[in-house]
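WP5 quarterly update. Target: Prenyltransferase. Source organism: Plesiocystis pacifica SIR-1. Length: 286 aa.
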Amino acid sequence: MPKVPPALKIIVDVARFRLARLEMANLVAAVALMLTFRLPAGELGGRFAFGLLLNLLVYLNNDFHDLGDDLDSSSRDEEKTQFLHTNVRAALNAQLGLLGVLVAMAVIWKAELLVGLILGGGICWAYSYRLKRVPGLDVVAMTLWGVSMPLIGFPLDHIVGWLLVAQLGLCSMVFESIQVLRDREEDAAHDARTTAVLVGEGATKRLIRGALLLAGSFAALFLSPVAGVMAIGGVFVPFGDDTPRYWNRVRLLLGLAFLVECATVYFLGHTQGLWLQIPVDARFGG
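Structure tokens (predicted):
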């Protein structure tokens, strides 16, 4: 049996590890957007492939920057981390290869995909390189990342698409706040000053609840009051002592709320916000 090239194994390891941790939800959201706007099957397939490769690039880049910390962490996949450490050059080549394929796809097929690549990839690089250890900016960066990654899921001149990705950004604010809470003790041990390390557990929990209220209010005003109530319901999910379990419950609740928003647009042909109701085909300058 032929030996798998190290660069390919590294990419497969990234996919396996991140999928197991449910950390490619932005790709599911992008597919939901494609279906909401009834994109043709060929375009849906191309955008999905682009989104998958983009996710592999940004998560591999994150692992590349975090390699030193991951080697000292008991919560990481030791075999995967050691292989990456042993094959650093292959990991760099894998990133360059993924980037080259993505740029080629966008230039040859659909140039607007460069927006998602530049913003999503750029924000993730800045987050991995520096911002994840800057209190406040860690949460802001992942909020913007939550907006930029799903931009590959719809034609960028559609107003409703931007409302939906804005909602995804607010959901990412919730998720990043939970993540820094989960990692607070480990980050403090590594002298990583995240938002949760700076303000403490109690204030971070209040931040999470505030972000849930903001996400729910936005949904109710611009997209769907039903989804808004669902998102605000996350405020009443008990934290408990198991932060990953709490995170999964909130992800499920916000994920279902987003699907309600997409279904509302798909079946009614417009958003159903308490303040604004916008047709699905409304376009900037149209």
